[in-house]
Specification:
elongated; about 15% strand; mainly beta; about 270 residues
Length: about 270
């Protein structure tokens, strides 16, 4: 190669080329470890059953891909596009999907995440709008500012039979948007629901024990028979909601009465 030819090389593409070659070499084992991958283009690709350990993947286009069975352990997944991807039965542990510098999460808009599990992950600012989240687990995570608007937590058995399933436990959902979702009888125990949007949300029979329950918007919220024992309930006008069958401890009565404007004095 002459000196003139070498000057025409786009050197910005070299790290990606090297990363992709390394990925092909390990494709048989479906295990990728200790790699840094930027601008990976797997749009419309089928890459089932892959495991990434201690990797950083940034600015990847994974939209409309088949990533069923994807496993991520201790990875950084930054500014990646998972729109319309299938990621059924995924398992993510100790991963970060949030980029501090840009304050952006990943885009899972309309993705299929049925039975996928997030454990001890940071998914803050990620977009799950209209995604399929039936039987999802989000446990012990940071999920501030996420958008779950019209996400689907429901399995439709027939025209008259449907049920929802989700475990959204021990997670900080502060400022997240759950507008229009159906979480009947789902487990949200020990989570922080501070300044969340719960407009047109069904929480009937849901497990809300030990939560911090302080939504910013809750018009059209259905909370019939929900379990709020040992929860910190604040900012909710209980006159605007049907609290029939809601379970609380006796010790929580005083704070709820104060929300109604009562001044509580101790017994003498």
């Amino acid at each position: 190669m002459t000196d003139g030819q070498s000057q025409n090389i786009d050197r910005d593409t070299l790290p990606l080329t090297i990363a992709e070659e390394s990925l092909v070499l390990s494709a048989d084992s479906k295990l990728i470890q200790n790699k840094t991958l930027s601008y990976l283009d797997w749009k419309n690709e089928c890459k089932q059953g892959l495991t990434f350990k201690n990797c950083t993947i940034s600015c990847a286009d994974l939209s409309n891909s088949n990533l069923d069975g994807l496993r991520l352990e201790n990875c950084n997944i930054l500014d990646c596009d998972f729109r319309d991807a299938s990621i059924q039965d995924g398992f993510f542990e100790g991963c970060t999907f949030y980029e501090d510098s840009s304050q952006k999460g990943c885009d899972f808009n309309s993705a299929d995440l049925r039975r996928t599990e997030f454990h001890r992950c940071n998914i803050s600012m990620s977009n799950f709008t209209r995604s399929d989240l039936f039987d999802i687990t989000i446990n012990d995570c940071q999920a501030q500012g996420c958008n779950f608007e019209f996400a689907d937590f429901v399995n439709i058995v027939s025209r008259t039979v449907l049920f929802s399933s989700a475990r959204l436990t021990k997670t900080n959902f502060k400022y997240s948007n759950f507008k229009g979702v159906h979480l009947e009888k789902c487990d949200l125990s020990e989570s922080k629901l501070i300044a969340v949007i719960l407009s047109e949300v069904n929480l009937e029979g849901a497990n809300l024990t030990n939560t911090v329950f302080a939504p910013s918007q809750y018009d059209g919220l259905s909370i019939f028979k929900a379990d709020l024992r040992n929860s910190e309930i604040s900012g909710v006008d209980i006159r605007s909601l049907d609290f029939s069958g809601v379970r609380i401890f006796e010790s929580q009565m005083a704070s709820l009465m104060e929300e109604l404007g009562f001044i509580i004095y101790p017994d003498r």
